[in-house]
Amino acid sequence: MVIRAAEADLAAGGLDHVNQLAVGAGVAAAGLTSWLAQERKLEPTAILAEIEREASQRGAPAHAVTMLRTLLTGPPGMQQTAEFMVRLFHDDEEAYYDLIVDLGSYIAVCIGMLHRLGISSPEQTLDDLTGMLQGFYTA
What we know:
Blueprint: H1 2-12, H2 16-39, H3 44-58, H4 62-73, H5 79-91, H6 93-116, H7 122-138
Helix pairs in contact: 1-2, 2-3, 2-4, 2-6, 2-7, 3-4, 4-5, 5-6
């Protein structure tokens, strides 16, 4: 998906597709984090703290955690997240593309957790994510 978005952007001479993919992955990951937090009767910040601890112990990419923090704990709106993304792309373009892949992996783990906990099937979760993202992009 990242490669297709990058190819489309090369053809169009911009970054719209990659940026939409990055934002969509971040919004989906944040939504799933909130859902898991709600089901566990925790605040999303508690889930983020767990993820951050795990990331630091396993050497997992911290950029995904940072992006999620901007989405879940920052002021309303996308300004803080947009500033983070612009800064990351400017400082380390490869890390920006890695962020999208890392968010995709994170989303897959969340979908698996929701399924294992008996909360939602993968199919239902994907349907819910589709509706959420359609609402996000049309709002």
